[in-house]
Design brief:
Blueprint: E1 2-5, H1 11-22, E2 26-31, E3 47-51, E4 69-72, H2 84-99, E5 106-112, H3 121-134, E6 139-145, E7 148-149, H4 154-165, E8 168-171, E9 178-179, E10 182-183, H5 184-193, E11 203-207, E12 213-214, H6 215-225, E13 231-234, H7 240-250, H8 255-265, H9 276-280, H10 287-299, E14 332-339, H11 343-351, H12 363-375, E15 396-397, E16 400-406, E17 411-416, E18 422-431, E19 434-443, H13 445-471
Parallel strand pairs: 1-2, 1-4, 2-3, 4-5, 5-6, 6-11, 7-10, 8-13
Antiparallel strand pairs: 9-12, 14-19, 15-16, 16-17, 17-18, 18-19
Helix pairs in contact: 1-5, 2-3, 4-6, 6-10, 7-8
Length: 474
């Protein structure tokens, strides 16, 4: 069966893709930038990757006509320009118009539970997308989920940040809001289970786990599973703006996403009854078990996807390709070299840089720089990294984005997504038993030049200490 998978670099699609390939389906992945998608890790002849920008109707012509069904997993909730409703409507219209001219019999759309008349912008946009996709030749099957719990999911990581960082929480009223969380494993089972099931055509189903909890209960049960004692006080004076800042500074979310989350969390998301789980033979996983399963994956270093990889700064909206060639003209370049006797352990050390491993020298200074970036509205150091040992092009790495990660070439190239008066690259390369560390900065006007000269004194010992400590790992 030929399946079109949109949003292939997103959290859900990266979990769904290996399941579809394992079932023997031919999968065509739609990505805006091939350099952000590591197709080699799937090692399948049934996988094809095409570049599509759903905001550009002409680019959809690359979608082949010979497909049986398509998954619509495109969301723009964390966009920085505040117009995600317009973007989602444009993408949905372009997708529908193109799919009308293919052989697709079914489109499966993952949306959010909408069971109240007064909706947030986020949920209202999802409902509008469903309306757009339903007016088409193909049959639409809509699955609606609330909080998705799994290693690397936005909900899981935000709850984890709150519980593990704050022994005492002064929280807003929306912590009393009830929801029906669902394990990521169940979400994938539902998405795979409705493939070409005619009884699900032109139907909408709420999907959730067996537990109905409010957000306070979810936090306290998470804490209990982790063996932590936490106290939560709820106050009525926290406005949506204050709540958004609260999430932004304590968790890994961007401010734009925090705003949309807060607006959505004020609305109850409880499933309307249906028999889809029993029809498909799916056993629903409870909240506590979903948490334990998520930590099992983390401890085994088997996190397949992370929502943080989708957090992209405005700098990279046009894709990674244009930044992979590091500029020379008009740039400040700082190159350091260190001879090494054994390249392999040094390369492994480079591959583990950032996240929990840190930056091998002056970690508190890196954290301070991340905090200052966060104050300026940037991504900060909160994103960490998905895996402690593996890294691929397109992955997030603290406030960097991985452009090139090639063990064959012994090269790692990073691009800064922090707020800067210019652009910055950091490269590690091993050539002839020499570790080469290169920092490149392309300043933007006078402010960019002043910035470079102001941080130069720190580069001496930060970058010097970093290459020294990395080279010493032999």
């Amino acid at each position: 069966m030929k399946i079109l998978l949109t949003g292939a670099t997103g959290y859900i699609a990266q979990r769904l893709l290996p399941v579809l390939l394992q079932e023997g389906h031919q999968v065509i992945c739609c990505v805006r930038d091939k350099n952000r998608f590591n197709s080699r890790r799937f090692a399948s002849e049934n996988l094809r990757v095409i570049e599509v920008d759903f905001l550009d109707a002409k680019s959809l012509l690359t979608i082949p006509e010979e497909i049986d069904l398509a998954y619509y997993l495109i969301h723009s909730m964390s966009t920085q320009n505040g117009k995600f409703e317009e973007m989602e409507a444009t993408c949905a219209n372009n997708f529908r118009d193109r799919l009308e001219n293919t052989q697709a019999r079914q489109v499966i759309y993952l949306s959010g539970i909408v069971n109240e008349e007064e909706l947030s912008k986020h949920l209202s946009s999802r409902k509008n997308v469903e309306h757009i996709l339903s007016n088409a030749r193909f049959a639409l099957t809509t699955l609606k989920a609330g909080i998705i719990v799994g290693s690397g999911s936005a909900s899981f990581e935000i709850i984890r940040d709150l519980v593990e960082k704050l022994p005492v929480m002064i929280a807003p009223q929306w912590l009393k809001t009830k929801c029906q969380p669902i394990a990521i494993r169940n979400v994938i089972e539902f998405l795979e289970g409705v493939i070409l099931k005619e009884e699900t055509y032109h139907q909408s189903f709420d999907i959730g786990g067996p537990d109905i909890l409010n957000y306070k209960e979810m936090l306290l049960r998470f804490a209990k599973i982790r063996g932590l004692k936490r106290r939560i006080g709820i106050v009525p004076v926290m406005t949506p703006r204050i709540s958004s800042y609260w999430l932004y500074f304590v968790t890994s979310t961007s401010y734009a996403l925090a705003q949309n989350l807060v607006n959505s969390m004020k609305i109850e998301v409880i499933c309307s009854p249906n028999n889809l789980a029993s029809t498909l033979g799916i056993t629903r996983i409870g909240y506590d078990d979903a948490i334990r399963m998520a930590f099992d994956k983390i401890e085994q270093n088997q996190v397949l996807s992370s929502w943080k990889d989708a957090q992209t700064s405005d700098r990279l909206q046009k894709g990674l390709t244009q930044y992979m060639e590091v500029p020379v003209n008009g740039c400040f370049v700082e190159v350091r070299r260190k001879e090494i006797s054994d390249p392999e352990p040094v390369l492994e050390a480079v591959w583990k840089i950032g996240g929990k491993t840190g930056w091998y020298y002056g970690n508190w200074l890196w954290e301070m720089r991340g905090f200052l970036d966060q104050l300026a509205g940037g991504v900060g150091m909160r994103r960490g990294r998905k895996s402690e040992t593996e890294i691929s092009a397109g992955d997030t790495l603290d406030f960097w984005r991985v452009l090139i990660a090639s063990k064959e070439e012994k090269r790692l190239l990073l691009y800064a997504e922090m707020k800067l008066p210019g652009e910055a690259w950091l490269e590690f390369k091993i050539e002839d038993r020499v570790l080469i560390q290169t920092a490149t900065f392309r300043p933007l006007g006078l402010l960019g030049r002043l910035y470079w000269y102001s941080v130069m004194p720190f580069h001496g010992f930060i970058f010097g200490g970093m290459i020294k400590n990395i080279a010493a790992i032999q």
